[in-house]
């Protein structure tokens, strides 16, 4: 049995809009539509989607904050809607935009409080806290009230708070948002290490494609409440990678050049971007360009994830599936 | 049952320790709570420089009514006062954070930002009650003496239940409604005085609809040996614990319903 | 000059955005007005309703009660404290001190903008609610109305001057919450909100009527009630003007001292 199971889950929000002084119009917004997937123990899954796609809603349903309108959710054999408190002890959550720590208390006190709330064995607690303090460099921060920590420091605190009780699953809702490059790298390597050392199953919702590339082995893309893609990174690239790009630097700015088998996607002064089918060889095209036009330099670009995902968001996934 | 209480006490302990980090601030805030409460008392004292009885009640009798209701209110405020902030938690998204922890949401919201400064109100109410008891020309039978802690305890429970009910309503509606505070603080204020001075209709409302009459008025009628203006049977004088229990049960139910509604509709 | 008008208008508009808070505030004022009115009625009835206590009969007292509740928002008895206080604490005030506009005048303009909104959105509805529920005394002479308007304006000036000084105290005190709490308590008691100042006995009454807080609520209310007419009214306005002038002047001196302090400390 999988660790996380969602089958046929619907989640509808009833929105009331003000039309006029007193009247309100109600209409339903399906945030999640017939969503089904499973996650096995030990997986590291990235959950991508544009704003409003249903990412946060999914995490809320997995943790029991929100109850599905229809369908079935099982996490570690439990129903989050009915067994929220029992499940809470086996799960850790990190919210990118809110802290799970207590604002006015020093970090150490927050951790101590969590130890008692989660009924963590004192020996285990000590071991875990020492380990995380070392890994995340929390030493100098332990006595500081959470309110005085920077965003990166607070995120490290939140990560610790979520893992102190050795949860089987860790959910992260946009954890790297607003962090600087160093902090992002630290968070990513920490997550990878947790998954490797402890087998913690990780579900990470994010906008940041670097998070996906560096941390996750599996990616789910959700758009308008539906699962648009579920697979690993190579499959994601292959899925929408219909085109590669030749970046041509001409000697002088010219009108868009025409080469059979390519189309000009973009022109910026002397530089032009030519797209061509990914399964075609670039060699004859390069030769054709160089033969007909004065070229200063040429580069070949693989499709990167951004393009791929943008295509998926744009609904071109339906054209490719 | 033990679970939420344990969680509440844990959190309260932590918050108390946090508030002691700034002892000067704590002292000032406690003092200001005390002073504000004393002003209400000063008002009563001034009123009685112009008369010997208010709605037929003497100064010690009014002090008794004030002392019991103020103590009950201060206790409720101390224990669950901050539960009214649940509206703000919903708005800021911090209620979700509470739902993710393996602890009762009510215990967390009620314990949030607990501060010993509320003891300031308690410290001004209790002496008044003591003085009133000393001054009252009442025959202190065993029943009357026993009724005192029962009154205050039940009164505190009633206020606490009303607090939780108002908060549960905010949860169910998913919004912060400041108007509900008027109910709570207005209610706490009006029971400081003999309820008969608000008129018979108000008295009926406060007995049958918003049962604040059971916070101190009904039991006080027995302690002070006074007839009930509404003519209700003697059993009503001792009904406070029953009313308190009913209200607490209602509040618990309402809270659960509120949380269930929040989890079904999101924010 | 137009700068200050802009500030005033800006504050007015900002206040008007808080619709629910204003409504909630108005309801709270009305509810507490009702409760206090009943207590005052009970006091007069314990003697004889038509007998005057220190010049007030029961209708005067009830009118005063709702006038004072109506004035709460206008003269900001329970705050909010001036934005200046927060800006001093955060250090943003340095920007204000470098502005070519006069700091005190700037804050005053903002406060008048705020007050204009509160008069319309809270004071008037609260008093009307009281007038509907109880019998109150409303002046018929346009002269009295005009004098009251002037008196209210002077009351706001006095109240502003006090709050300005409280806000500036943050320059010297690390934690000004104590001063705020103290100022609120004094304002509540000595403005006549808890009880009309005429009820204060002996030396307390004399003292209360001489303090600046009397100028914020008691004086305009008495003008409205027709207690001060003719030369006495002029005297009352002069009392307000005197306190306003004294406190505003003190404010200017303190601003200069604060400015020096900022320069010395480097912000």
Summarize the entry for a quick read:
The complex is a heterotrimer of chains A (321), B (267) and C (267). Chain A has 321 residues and is α/β, with parallel strands linked by helices.
Kindly describe this structure.
The complex is a heterotrimer of chains A (321), B (267) and C (267). Helix content of chain A is 34%, strand content 31%. Chain A is built from 11 helices and 13 strands. A 6-stranded mixed β-sheet of chain A has the order 5-6-7-3-8-9, sandwiched between helices. A 4-stranded antiparallel β-sheet of chain A has the order 11-12-10-13, covered by helices on one side. In chain A, a hairpin with a 2-residue loop joins strand 11 (263-268) and strand 12. Chain A is globular and about 75 Å long. Chain B is globular and about 55 Å long. In chain B, helix 2 packs parallel to helix 7, helix 3 crosses helix 8 (142-173) and helix 8 runs parallel beside helix 12 (240-265). Chain C is mainly alpha-helical. In chain C, 76% of the residues lie in helices and 0% in strands. Chain C contains 12 helices and no strands. Chain C has helices spanning 2-16, 19-46, 58-74, 83-90, 93-98, 103-133, 142-168, 177-190, 202-210, 212-216, 218-225, 231-265. The model of chain C has no long low-confidence stretch (mean pLDDT 87). Classes of the chains: A alpha/beta (321), B mainly alpha (267), C mainly alpha (267). Chains in contact: A-B, B-C. At the A-B interface, helix 1, helix 2, strand 5 and helix 3 of A face helix 1, helix 5 and helix 12 of B.
